[in-house]
Amino acid sequence: xxxxxxxxxxxxxxxxxxxxxxxxxxxxxxxxxxxxxxxxxxxxxxxxxxxxxxxxxxxxxxxxxxxxxxxxxxxxxxxxxxxxxxxxxxxxxxxxxxxxxxxxxxxxxxxxxxxxxxxxxxxxxxxxxxxxxxxxxxxxxxxxxxxxxxxxxxxxxxxxxxxxxxxxxxxxxxxxxxxxxxxxxxxxx
Length: 189
Description:
The protein contains 5 helices and 7 strands; from the N terminus they run H-E-H-E-E-E-E-H-E-H-E-H. Helix content is 33%, strand content 23%.
């Protein structure tokens, strides 16, 4: 898969991809404190994004299998999400991806059976090695609060690889740009 930033934005615009969630009820969880956390995260992310010398990437994983039911997904604004459950189910895989303008072809991915800390640490090393920038320059990585992303071993690996984690607040998938890309990938399977 070969992508660049401009073609990705054109693709989103041409296909009408927006951050509209289907069957996703995160608004009920937005207490005043959580709303403040979201606003502080948005401001921090905007400051990092506006400084063009910073290396910013969005990381997330998605499961691909033939029996998956989509309860939380991004969709085309005029269409509905179609779910087909085949009679013969097979095992799936997990794809961990990183989306960032400093990466070759803008996108780096790894296919694994499960998302665990060992697979995630090896993916972090792959992102760092794929970077076209020197190792001394930190990579700011937007991550959700998945258990495999947030533990002592992963934090130590991030420190050694000069990766600065930006943990998204709970129920805030709209801060991670790669979510829209996963919707397109899953829609084409």
